[in-house]
Amino acid sequence: MSPLAKLLEAALFASSRPLTVGELSTLEPHAGEGAVHAGLAEIRAAYADQDHGIELVEIAQGWQFLTRREYAEAIDRAQFALRPRRLSPAALETLAIVAYRQPVGRGEVDEIRGVDSGAVIDKLIERGLVEVVTRGEGLGRPLLYGTTPQFLEILGLKDLDELPRLDELSVALRPPAPTEPE
Amino acid sequence: MSAPPSPVVQEQPGFVVELEQFSGPLDLLLHLITEDELDITDLPIAKIADQFLAVIDELGLNQAADYLEMAARLLRIKAQLLLPRRLGDDEWEDPRAGLVRRLLEYQQIRELVDWLALAAARRAEQFGRGFRPEPPEAPPAPLVIELNDLLAAAERVIALPEPVLHRVVPRPLDVEGATARIEALLAERARFGWLEVVGERPSLVDVLSAFIALLELAKRGALRLSQDGPFTPIVIQRESPREAA
Q1: pTM above 0.95?
Q2: Residue of B19, B100, B113 for testing the chain A interface, max A β-carbons within 10 Å
Q3: Class of domain A89-168
Q4: What is the number of domains present in chain B?
Q5: Predicted confidence (pLDDT) per residue in B185-240, tens digit
Q6: Which residues pair with B224 in a beta bridge?
Q7: Interface confidence (ipTM) of the complex
Q8: Cα torsion at A25, A29, A31, A33 (round to 10°)?
Q9: Which residues of B touch A92 (CB under 8 A)?
Q10: Which of A52, B119, B140, B202 could be a cystine partner for A155, CB 3.0 to 4.6 Å?
Q11: Which of B26, B101, B108 sits opposite A114 (nearest CB)?
Q12: Chain-centre distance of CA A137, in angstroms?
C-alpha cells in the first residue's frame, strides 16, 4: 500500500467512529481529497483481497473499519462488544417522520403519529439521533428537528439519500405539504 | 356516495388488546382495519367507530386522551355521514377524507419503521472499534444453560450427603459492653488507638463487638475513625458533640 494509504489505515484503526474524507484530509494537508479517496479505495481493496475479519465500510458520510457480518454472532456471544439497544416502535416512528420531514416541528410529528411525541423526541435527542436544527416561522418560533450523523451510523447508511424513496413504498402518498401558517 | 354498508359484519368474541402494544390511536385503528381486511379508502365508519369505542372502553380511559380525541372524531364523522344531503350536491366532501389521509400517511410511516428496524438490525451485525460508553441500563447477560447441565446440577443436589448438623453455641456479641468501654476511654482522652479498645489479645468476639460499637458511635457522631492506610491501626478521635440528640 502507498504511504498515504497506510497513514489512513492507522487513523481509521485508531478511531471509534466513522471519519469523513474531510477529516482524513487533515492528516496530510498536501495530499488533497482526491488522493484520500484513492487511498481509501486502496485500503478497501487490500482488506477485501487478503481476506480479513474486518472491512472498510462507507457509513454516515465517512469511513470506518467494521467487523465482518459472519463474526457478529460469535463476538456477541462472547460479549466482547455491546450491541446498541434496540429502538422502540415509538422511537422508530418518530425517527422516520423526522428523517423524511426534516426540519420538522413537534406539532407535525404529533399530528402524524396521533399522539404526543415530546418525550420520545427528548429521548432521541439524548441518544444523539435527533437534534434541533433551526427554528420555524410562526407563533413562538417552534424548534425544528433533524437527524444527526449518529442516526446514519446506527442504520449503516452512507447518507439520507439511501433511505427508501416514498414512491417506492407500497403506500404511495402525497409529498410533504407546504407548511401552513399557524 | 352514501354511507357504505359494512362488508362483513363479524362478531369478535374475546377481543383482547393491550393498549401498550399500540403506539397510538392511529395504530389501533390500522390494526382494526387490517384485522377485518377493510378497504381503507372506503371505511365503514360506523363499524370502526363502534369497535374503537369498545376497545378503549375495555382498556379503561385512564391514560387515553389521544384515544378519546380519536373516538370523538370518529363519532363526528359517523354523524356527518348520517346527515341527509341533496342529490347532485357537488359541494359535498366525504367527511372521512381527512381521516383516510392521516391513516394512509401513518401506514406509510409504519412501512418506513419496518425498513429502519431492518437497517438497524443489519448494522448491528457489524462492530466498530474502540470504546463506547455503555448504555445506562445494559441488560444482564442472558443465562445460557443446556438441559443436560440443568439435569446434572439437579442430580448433584439430590445426591448431596445428609447435611452435617452443627450445634450453635450462644455467644452473643457484647456491643453494649464495648460501647461502654469506648465511651469511658473517650471521656478520658481525645485520641487513642484500636489496641487500647480491644486489648492485647482480643478474641474474635471482642474484635467484632468493638468494631460494631465503633461504627455505631461514629455514626452517632461521638467519634471519628481514621486510618493512615489500608490495614494500618485504626485511630479513634473524640468528636465534639454537634447535635443535642
Answers
A1: no
A2: B113
A3: mainly alpha
A4: 2
A5: 888 888 888 888 888 888 888 888 888 999 999 888 888 888 887 777 788 888 86
A6: B237
A7: 0.87
A8: 30
A9: 113, 116-117
A10: B119
A11: B26
A12: 28
